[in-house]
Amino acid sequence: MMTAQNYExxxxxxxxxxxxxxNDSDNSKPTILFLHGFPSSFYSWRHQLExxxxxxxxxxxxxxxxxGKTYSPLDKDQYKGxxxxxxxxxxxxxxxxxxxxxxxxxxxxxxxxxFVLYHPERTLGVVLISGGYSAPAIFDLDRTLETxxxxxGYETLGYWKFFEADDAATIIENNLESFIDLAFASDPTxxxxxxxxxxxxxxxxxxxxxxxxxxYMTENDYAIxxxxxxx
Length: 231
Known about the structure:
The chain is of the alpha/beta class.
């Protein structure tokens, strides 16, 4: 049974996480740190936590800042890679974990990349899924979108313009079913036509569009994803 726990990683800052001990009597295998993306939570790693613990690995999956019962500040400037990694280090210290293999997915790849840069002495290895390494730099979204449109043919990251809008959270919260349908659509071409290009997510949600979700998402999965997005 995987039970969520909480730890105050800094004064007034809580981290919610799952820690599963591996079936390794001599504790010879390393610990794996799983970092989720969006729209997600530590729940997304449930199968990996179970599998790797059976193989003898200890495994940790935190809810990153802004998710679940982890600290969720309204000030976007608090969502910094360095501070988020300091919170991870505080959690590892609390659990007496000296070093880890870091696995990041989607937005979790950015946190994982920074973990390696800031704390190489705590890193045994890193795996980045659905997102590559990006060196620290000032990011120009508009210039990136223009480059993508010229090279790929459409703005693969155009939905970022919606996510950075002040009303994005309210629109998603008011249209959760529509958003989950699109994010986990059974027809992947919808991500190219209705999710990625600038303005498409907003149009989809404000029109309350629906589609068939992927068969891999059970009703229980749907209920849990909906709960996390609604919190």
